[in-house]
Amino acid sequence: MKPTINEQCKPAFEFTKAELLAVNNALNEVCNGFTVAPFEGKLGVDRDGVIALLDAVGKVYDLTPDPESSEACDATADECSHFPLNAQWTRDKRIVVVLCSKHLLTMKNALAEVDKELEDWEFDTRMGCTRDFAMSLLKAIDDACDRQSDGD
What we know:
Elements: E1 2-5, E2 11-15, H1 17-33, H2 39-43, H3 47-63, H4 77-81, E3 86-89, E4 95-98, H5 101-117, H6 120-127, H7 131-151
Antiparallel strand pairs: 1-2, 2-4, 3-4
């Protein structure tokens, strides 16, 4: 994940499809995989907020072509305008997503909870990535949260 600036000067972040999958799976795990208590205290938003973000991330992920494929994103401008997240695709099939600080914090907190709750033997299967990959993504999101709070 790397930060970028979009035309409207809102914070935007580039994700690979694998990074987006890790975020999606972390959000899914905190909602459906294990108990998080107190939910809002640990994630920063209520369950409905996490489910809405999970739905948005899932829609963006589903429309993103695999990096190895020759196909382009098949999302129409009309479909993209209905996303809760503002997403665009680069030529190298990275996903540029405009995120508010609350979305970033929720992603960061979900990855942190998954790290605490999932054991090594189950992590790769449930998350679709290695713990090292997820922790590298967590660090990148944490750094982005720090940059956003410095700019506030």
